[in-house]
Amino acid sequence: MKKIKNKLILTVMVIVLASLIGVAGQAQATGSYTTRDLNEQLVMATLWIQTSAEFRALCYQSFNLARMNLDLFLGSYAGTKPVAVIVDADETLIDNSAYEAFLIGNDFGYSSKTWTSWMAAARATPIPGALAFLNYAKSKNVEIFYVTNRKMVGYEGTEKNLRALGFPYVDKKHLLLRTKSSDKQPRRGMVAKDYEIAFLIGDNLNDFLSVFSTKSIADRFTEVDKIKEIWGKKFIVLPNPTYGDWEGAIYKGNWGASAAEKNKMRKDHLKRWDFHP
Ligand SMILES: [Mg+2]
């Protein structure tokens, strides 16, 4: 009886093992491309933010420009409204590249669950030059409004993070997280009612105007070109190669595409040198 039982267990184990090998073989045969594979593509962009001094130099350049703009603006401003600067938070004032690095090597992409934990951890670090500029603005009585698409679930962590780093005006009036819409225009409009907005700082075109929203790559180019004199003046852009609406444009807004599909869409958009050595 015992022998028969052992034989049965052995047979079941062999069947399970064979089917596992079969599944693995199949996956290899169809070349299944996982999120872990796709996350490998984040390595260079994340490293660029974390290790290139060029990134730091670009950030300082942006905030030096911001200071110059503010001085110019205040020098000629004769209005009665108080002056404000509107800023985005993520990848504009604070660096979340450690969250991106956490995705690398894992078989999952960005999710609101892990992002919520990251916000609560309050571990983002300041973007070079951001703190000095915002505190300079404060010294000139210019108020800062943080218009970010972090959701309200992250309010406490965001407030804690920004305050701990020493950013000014971090309170319920100035820290405007996303409540209903990801469109920032209604929040910008709210600020504009009572303040003269000197300029805006962000890393994503939606931080400046809603006209860029859900546009194709070609249309985003056209819209940016239309207002080419504005960049560096009314709109100051920080570099963010890790994520943004530029990525959504590659997928034509289909963020739910599989890792394999995203990989294909990315590669299909490369402009290649047609050379056959
Ligand atoms: Mg941002």
How many independent structural domains? 1
Averaged pLDDT, please?
92
Please write the string of helix (H) and strand (E) elements: HHHHEEHHEHEHEHEHEHH
**Bound heterogens, unique:** magnesium ion
Q: What would you call the shape?
A: globular
Largest sheet: 5 strands, parallel
Number of helices, counting only DSSP H or I runs of 4 residues or more: 12
Helix vs. strand class: alpha/beta
Question: What is the architecture at the second tier of CATH?
Answer: 3-Layer(aba) Sandwich
Give helix % range: 40-55%
Strand and helix layout:
Layout: H1 2-30, H2 35-39, H3 43-51, H4 53-76, E1 83-87, E2 94-95, H5 97-103, H6 112-121, E3 125-126, H7 130-139, E4 143-151, H8 155-165, E5 175-178, H9 185-194, E6 196-202, H10 217-226, E7 235-237, H11 245-250, H12 259-268
Parallel strand pairs: 1-4, 1-6, 4-5, 6-7
Antiparallel strand pairs: 2-3
Helix pairs in contact: 3-4, 3-5, 4-7
Bound molecules: magnesium ion.
Magnesium ion is lined by residues 88, 90-92, 202-204.
What does this structure look like?
- The structure is a single chain.
- The protein is an alpha/beta fold and 277 residues long.
- The protein has a single domain (35-268), classed as Rossmann fold, CATH 3.40.50.1000.
- The protein has helices spanning 2-30, 35-39, 43-51, 53-76, 97-103, 112-121, 130-139, 155-165, 185-194, 217-226, 245-250, 259-268, and strands at residues 83-87, 94-95, 125-126, 143-151, 175-178, 196-202, 235-237.
- A five-stranded parallel β-sheet has the order 5-4-1-6-7, with helices on both faces. A two-stranded antiparallel ribbon has the order 2-3.
- Helix 3 (43-51) crosses helix 4 (53-76) and helix 3 (43-51) runs antiparallel to helix 5.
- The radius of gyration is 24 Å and the shape is globular.
- The relative contact order is 0.13.
- The structure holds magnesium ion.
